[in-house]
Amino acid sequence: MFSVHPVILSGGAGSRLWPLSRSQFPKQLLALAGKQSLIQDTALRAGGGDFAAPVIICNVEHRFLIAQQMREAGIAPEAIVLEPVGRNTAPAAAIAALMVQKKDPDGVLLLMPADHIVRNRTAFLDALDRATAAARQNHLVSFGITPDSAETGYGYIRRGEPLKGLEKSFKVARFVEKPDSATATDYVASGDYDWNSGMFVFKASTFLAELEKLEPDLLAACRASLDGAKSDLDFLRLEAETFGKAKSISIDYAVMERTDKAAVVPVDMGWSDIGSWDSLWSVATRDGDGNAVQGDVLQHGARNSYLRSEGPLVAAVGVEDLVIVATPDAVLVSHRNASQDVKRIVEQLDRSGRELHNTHRKVYRPWGSYEGIDAGDNFQVKHITVNPGAKLSLQMHHKRAEHWIVVSGTAQVTCGDKVFTMRENESTYIPLGSKHRLENLGPEPLHLIEVQSGSYLGEDDIVRFEDTYGRS
Questions:
Q1: Beta bridge partner(s), residue 231
Q2: Is the dihedral of CA 387, 389, 394, 396 positive or negative?
Q3: What whole-number distance in Å separates Cα of residue 313 and Cα of residue 301?
Q4: Phi and psi (nearest 5°) for 456?
Q5: pLDDT in tens, 205-262
């Protein structure tokens, strides 16, 4: 059997990293600190050697994006488990532990959030070896991050007595909530405290036994939900009604702060939870003036700023300690010290009924993506990309017609009872009320421009006769 079973928890919206992170495309799916996305980095960090294939637990809306990113990274997950509703980390950990226990009764889980950075993998693996040794002696182990500043945005762990016979491993004296600045300064100065990373190592059997004592109803709900789960393509869908009965609670509150088996392994591994633009600036490569610059950016006289563009040119002159982030549909300007409050803007967007906190202009689908180009009264224009071998569902619209123009690639088009091929610079008209489907049979992505016109252009005007996999 494998030494360690990685479990990746992919939840949350990353609202402090708006406008790049949005609920439909959150920070764990973004390449924020390198070429790979955070969830890809997390999976690769615990890959190869004695690691089992990862179990990924996520919500339904992100399933296709996560599956695609795993394929791109060459990772074949043991399972991608879909939560019908968010229930925090304790139920997710319970589901994972139940799954691992079925395959490996003595299996050790490595529980990791999908959206953290670890820059020193060697230190991570060394700490994991120590944590695994402690877990095999029935300890529930937290990774404690050696603090390099008096952070008030993290919880802390106070180290207790050393664990006998285990190197650099300690009992947990107590968990501490996020402190004020003066208290955090005292913690760091004492040398007795570590940041709580939210990463855990434990045997499935040990964790489940503690959960049975401390939160039996939660465990019963999770067990019933897993028993009723159904496979769907690459995914495992938990049974919704029973999972919804599980208490929404973190693993810290449900178990770690209440058990007598809690242990901590301190480690300095270049860790960050990337909880704000300021924290991303702190781990980014910076120039001689302290600026982290990415994308189409020009600057003159800027200092200690995070400057990023995902679309339009950003020009920054004489600014200091700012965050400026531009996407095709939004621009954020914030003082670095206020970047934790970006979520307040997201809350305002939510209250106003706008969608800028949920979706980007580019929206990903199982078959590819579409991006809004222009819109007005009774029309909208989209750039559609269809992946090789993919197709949209067979569908019809009652209130709009469409024009399709192929930019590159080869399209197979169904319109009514006709099936035909379109190539670069060719176009077709899809009349209102016609059954139609678009498919890419070629080896390259298909790019086309779609012009919609009609009295109503909303998603609920779509009548689908098949799903996106061609199933009736």
A1: 236
A2: positive
A3: 17
A4: -150, 135
A5: 999 999 999 999 999 999 999 999 999 888 999 999 999 999 999 999 999 999 999 9
